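If your schedule permits, I should be very grateful for your opinion on a structural question. Thank you for your consideration; the sequence and its tokens are set out here:

===
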Amino acid sequence: MVIQVGFAYFASVILFCALMVITRRNPVHCALFMLPLMFHVAGIFIMLNAEFVAAVQVLVYAGAIMVLFLFVIMLFKGADGQKDKAGFQGSWPVIVPLVTVLCGFFMSILVRASFNGTKGQYPIEAVAKIGNSQAVGRVLFTDFLFPFEVASVILLVAMVGAIVLAKKGAE
């Protein structure tokens, strides 16, 4: 019963914040509504015993990505963060049916999907014995070390490129 109440709370706040993100006119307000959304998604991950994913959610998305969004909004929209008036005002009769069809398509795929794949070397029992974060760490730094390092290099190149572009703009 407690789990259902907790899930209902997290899900309702996530839905409310998501609606606020897409309906607010001020992009700064949209970005600020994303912050509790990210924290509540992390709460659902904690309820699912995925502590590592919850920590990554808070550190990466609620921390780094939200700061990046706010900087970009302030950079391109000015200090007041006001959006231009052109937008989707006349497109709602087209957008709503399209989104409804896409949601129905994805739901039909989820209903028909079967997830009967082969089990890896870390089934639920093994993860429960050694811990979720330890299992993710072992797999990440053994089997997936090369893709992890490639992602690190790509992020480093993106960061250096952003610094170079920012320095050019300041001159």
User: Anything to note?
Assistant: DSSP finds seven helices and no strands in the chain.
